[in-house]
Amino acid sequence: MSKSFGAMSVAQLSVLIQSGAADPVDVAETVFDRIANYADKAVFTVLLKDRAMEEALASSERLRHGRSLGLLDGIPIAWKDLFDIEGVTTTAGSRVLAGDTPAERDAAVVGLLKNAGMIAIGRTNMSEFAFSGLGINPHYGTPVNPQNSDRPRIPGGSSSGAGVAVAAGLVPVAMGTDTGGSVRIPAAFNGIVGYKATRGRHAMDGVYPLAKSLDSLGPLCRTVKDAVWIDAAMCGLTAPEVAERSLQGLELLVPENIVFDGAEPGVVEAFEAALERLQRAGVRMSRITIPAFDEIIHLLTKYGPLVTAQAYALHQERLAGPEADRMDHRVVMRTRLGARTTAPHYMALLEARGRLIADVDRFVGDRLIAFPTVAHVAPPIAPLEQDDELFFATNNKTLRNTMFGNFLDWCGVSVPCGAGEAGMPVGLLLSATARRDGALLGAALAAESVIRGDFT
Question: Which residues are part of the catalytic machinery?
Answer without folding.
Answer: 80, 158, 182
